[in-house]
């Protein structure tokens, strides 16, 4: 990746040419050199290029339209907690998971200042090992799928299936949809999600372009809404 970056004069070749900032390059270095603690180090060194500094625009739009399921909700890899707090309310208790103490501290501070702060909580847990006592009506994933090693995607799908109620919904913002090399974020496509979710009995009830994608993410992001079907999952 460093050779590609240098050869392009400080830019990296993706599907088309997309800027690879020094912050993204540093994030990739930390995560690749420190597989067990790289994400924590990113927070410690304030290298968080994925952090929008606000709730995800399309999430706010869906909330305003009343088209998000209520009930018990999970946001894995919640970071600063903007989306958790935006989702939280009297009919929606939201749990945000992260492995960084710094991220969780920021999220709790934000929640303490929010009128919906009593309807959410933040836990330091590993998504792949965590075993809550209750299942979820809704799980929202944005950039968590592309942050993990692509080899872990089948495990990601199994955990989603295990944590979601039979009639629950998995909502995914799929980004970046392109052909770039390396990661994180790792490239993705609708087919990548289908490959791991469909064998477990999930079916896409909606796939559409996210016209409210933030900044440079526009044109490289889709919204996916998934439900479990009654069909027996395929063995993996």
| H/E series | HEEHHHEHEHEEHHEHEE
Shape, please?
globular
Percent strand equals 15-25%
Structural class designation: alpha/beta
Residue stretches low in confidence (pLDDT < 50, at least 5 long) are: 1-18
What does the average pLDDT come to? 83
Tell me which oligomeric state these chains represent. single chain
Measured as a percent range, the helix fraction is 25-40%
Find the count of extended strands (DSSP E, 2+ residues). 9
How many helices? The count is: 9
What is the radius of gyration computed over CA atoms, rounded to a whole number of angstroms?
17 Å
Task: Give a written overview of the molecule.
Helices cover 32% and strands 22% of the residues. It has 236 residues and is of the alpha/beta class. β4 (94-98), α6 (101-112) and β5 form a beta-alpha-beta unit. The relative contact order is 0.13.
SSE inventory with pairings:
Blueprint (H helix, E strand, L loop, with lengths): L1 H6 L4 E2 L3 E2 L3 H12 L4 H7 L12 H9 L7 E4 L5 H6 L6 E5 L2 H12 L7 E5 L11 E7 L1 H4 L5 H11 E11 L15 H8 L4 E8 L12 E7 L8
Parallel strand pairs: 3-4, 3-6, 4-5, 6-7
Antiparallel strand pairs: 1-2, 7-9, 8-9
Helix pairs in contact: 2-3, 8-9
Task: Give a concise summary.
The chain contains nine helices and nine strands. It is an alpha/beta fold and 236 residues long.
Give keywords:
236 residues, alpha/beta, 7-stranded mixed beta sheet, disordered N terminus
